[in-house]
Design a protein that fits this description.
There is one protein chain. By secondary structure, the protein is mainly α. It has three domains: 69 residues; 101 residues, Non-ribosomal Peptide Synthetase Peptidyl Carrier Protein, Chain A (Orthogonal Bundle), CATH 1.10.1200; 73 residues, no CATH class. 55% of the residues lie in helices and 0% in strands. Helix 5 packs across helix 6.
């Protein structure tokens, strides 16, 4: 018994004081029965006042007793706290709260049943308590498919209602579990596609940079037809249409002529136009376009 856990202090300002008191009282009664002499009332009262905490002892000072402090028994002190924490219930209010209680979003079926039973305990329904809890479940559950099944079931009891409700909730959870991996798989596939999809914007930019670099390279080098720097086009080249004094061919200057022999300048009527095959060979169109 030395390792028995000491009950926590009673929270006398709890929102639901009656419920908090009920649970704490049960734990304290067990603890005192297991650790103390049943005949020593004074010791049990002192243990109770120690366990109830500062707030509980303040409440104790306001309670009314028939006997002086030294003559009070553990049962008398316990009953005085019972009257304080669990006053006479307002039956109409309790029944109103019970009949208005519906299952909340994301509230489990078992949690809803527990709350209904706690509310029903304040309604004094007596022998019809279970049947009224059953009816409230049918009316208040959020699963419309389950409600239809319950209404079709003959001789429906509270136990049967709870059994069908838990089975329906379990089935829905399994369906969600089976569906989620598919959704997750689709998400992963889309992510892979996005990672492997060609980046067209990057390719366009890369192509633009290549063209720009190529053009810049050309502009920074002397023209092989005139020996000067200019825009890479036929119309910008001063040698275009001119006759070389060294070889007699057209579309380049003597200073850049690659011919090893000197020939006489051809007569004007012998000069071929750009459309002639010879002119096309002299001035390579691919260099400019």
């Amino acid at each position: 018994m030395d390792k028995l856990r000491t009950p926590e202090k009673c929270y006398v300002e709890a929102r639901n004081l009656a419920d908090a008191w009920k649970r704490w009282k049960e734990e304290v009664e067990l603890y005192i029965d297991l650790t103390m002499d049943a005949e020593d009332e004074k010791a049990k009262v002192k243990m109770f006042l120690y366990l109830v905490g500062n707030q509980g002892r303040e409440v104790y000072e306001t309670l009314t007793f028939e006997h002086p402090p030294n003559d009070r028994t553990f049962i008398q002190v316990l009953q005085a706290f019972e009257n304080h924490c669990n006053p006479k219930k307002n039956e109409p209010v309790g029944r109103y709260m019970f009949n208005m209680r519906n299952q909340r979003p994301d509230e489990t079926f078992d949690k809803y049943i527990t709350e209904l039973k706690l509310l029903a305990s304040t309604c004094n329904y007596g022998a019809i308590n279970d049947s009224l809890v059953r009816d409230r479940i049918v009316c208040g559950i959020s699963n419309s498919s389950l409600r239809e099944r319950l209404l079709r079931t003959l001789d429906l009891t509270l136990d049967k209602t709870m059994q069908l409700g838990r089975a329906a909730e379990l089935t829905n959870e399994r369906i969600k579990t089976l569906e989620n991996p598919t959704a997750a798989s689709n998400t992963e596939v889309n992510a892979v596609r996005n990672r492997t999809k060609p980046n067209t914007k990057f390719k366009q930019k890369q192509s633009t940079y290549v063209k720009h670099d190529k053009q810049q390279y050309r502009n920074n080098n002397n023209c092989k037809y005139c020996g000067r720097k200019h825009e890479h086009s036929r119309s910008s080249c001063p040698a275009y249409g001119q006759t070389c004094r060294k070889c007699g061919k057209t579309n380049h200057f003597e200073s850049v002529c690659q011919s090893g022999k000197i020939t006489k300048t051809r007569r004007p009527h012998q000069v071929r136009t750009l459309s002639d095959d010879h002119a096309s060979e002299d001035y390579d169109s691919d260099e400019f376009f």
